[in-house]
Amino acid sequence: MSQGTLYDKVWDRHKVTTLPNGQDQLFVGLHLIHEVTSPQAFGMLQERGLEVARPDLTHATVDHIVPTASQDRPYSDDAAERMMAELEENVRDAGIEFSDPTTGDQGIVHVIGPEQGITQPGKTIVCGDSHTSTHGAFGALAFGIGTSQIRDVLATQTIAMEKQKVRKIQVDGELGEGVEAKDVILEIIRRLGTEGGVGYVYEYAGEAIEDLGMEGRMSICNMSIEGGARAGYVNPDETTYEWMEETDYFQEHPGKFDELKPYWESVRSDDDAEYDDVVHIDANELEPVVTWGTTPGQGVGIHDPIPAPEDLAEDKQDTARRAQKHMRVEPGETMEGYDIDVAFLGSCTNARLPDLRRAARIVEGRQVADDVRAFVVPGSQRVQRVAEEEGLADVFREAGFDWRNAGCSMCLGMNEDQLEGDEACASSSNRNFVGRQGSKDGRTVLMNPRMVAAAAITGEVTDVRDLEEAEVVA
Amino acid sequence: MSDPTEEVDEVDYVSGTGIPLRGNDIDTDQVIPARFMKVVTFDGLGQFAFFDQRFDDEDNPKDHPMNEERFGDANIMVVNSNFGCGSSREHAPQALERWGIDALIGESFAEIFAGNCLALGIPTVTADHETINALQQWVDDNPDGEIEIDVEDETVTYGSNEISVTVDDGQRKALVDGIWDTTALMKANQQAIQETADSLPYVEPAD
Question: Exposure of A72 by Cβ count < 10 A (0-12 exposed, 13-18 middle, 19+ buried)?
């Protein structure tokens, strides 16, 4: 078993006791909730006559069902309105802080936690959403939970868990021009498989990871779950601390930063930490990666051929055949030139300011292809505001993109933004599962945000490095 | 206030008939498509389990084991590898449970899904690829054949076969001892919870 890793240290600091069933009971430092997975948990609590134990360590927002075109209440979708109303009632009764759309702080739960500084190194963070792994970018131990576990956390501020193994993913070297954090994680999942991380927590390390800003680290940790790992993290460093210092929490509580920094430093993995497994990746070799199939592990370099199912491991062949039929691609082809109908720039993976800034440089002075509907959905109201102030929104609008309000949008078919029929979508999101974007015949191609911008312009999957960047924006 | 521990059953043994559901990497978006999650309770989710695999655009049934009458009463689902990957939605096992599933046997399960199943008292037991293939074939040939899962002994019996399966240690103990409902279990440790909270530098005293 691992020793001396951030995972071991944060686990030990939060361990309350070992339960009779053999699991450890862990204290939860931050519980994030949203409208989809929490109402049933509040219902279970009520059935048992229990109250929310630590509303002060709980924070709510609304993201999955919120419409991105108009946020006027009541929402035109009755079901969405009911879910929102239920969340409002639950947080009001329990006294839980709620970043609702009227506060200007609403957004995707994995965007707003880091923005507000409630996501911090060395915290345990849970949320009824599998992409909670995102918060690991700050050196937090963060993972998604189910609704019965939300009930546990609401009632006790603790969770029952079994300790897992730690795999260090060492990404050495430098990323080439036009290669992004998203490409690193798609490559990791391609190599290790969608189930390769089951039983593991991923520690991302090495020069290429350390060189990334917090947003890039978040993109990587975000998709740990697509690789089967429930949590992934990066050890906190000066990049992390600079981010923390700027956030609301530390601006409002001067003194806290110096008080907590020694704790953050103390939970970093030791130089001689022991890992259960170590994997090396050479950043210099990477290219932009796009998916050709219907699992996030079915990725390929933009100029590389789509694999023949019979060349894959035996247990991957059947899935690959079905995926290629669904996507209508043939082995030996590249994804370059694959026609798209929709370009979606958004989601908890890639809808933060640097993502939008980089994409805007591709879009500036160009026009979205005639037959493509393209839209940008900022990850939060704050991202939206700054992007509007910087002129990014105008750049996107002038190019023919729709500029929307914050939410999960077309990452999943729970709101008005959905694929129709067999539309193909160049998407900066995290899942290309059949039906994920709202149409069971829809086809999703995952890629980094600049690649989405390029695809929107050309109407087909394109190597963004072939397009010259504008230098005007931001 | 009711004592929640009273509701908790020991799940050391599940028996019934099987339904084979083949394919690796079956994600929870397939188990329960997101559009059916715009609800504030889990009631009624059973009819939507695997909806897009089971019905076409006009809601006509498609070729799918869950639409076959011979598997209509099945309560043990036999699946392949990485079943339940993707979204953490507990709606997935809730939908399967409401459709009638009491246990799953598979090559492997995604962690969050397995945890969600445990919270409902649904065992997720595993065996290797060949063993699962053979069992799926047997279920296909014997839709009324009895399957018995012994969670404590980690065996599955069907026809004249008894196979060894793996049940994760924590899951086995929790199910066999009837301590899979963790709320009451953890609530009892109030003082230790407070001590842990007090020892963490970032936790401020409760309001």
Answer: exposed
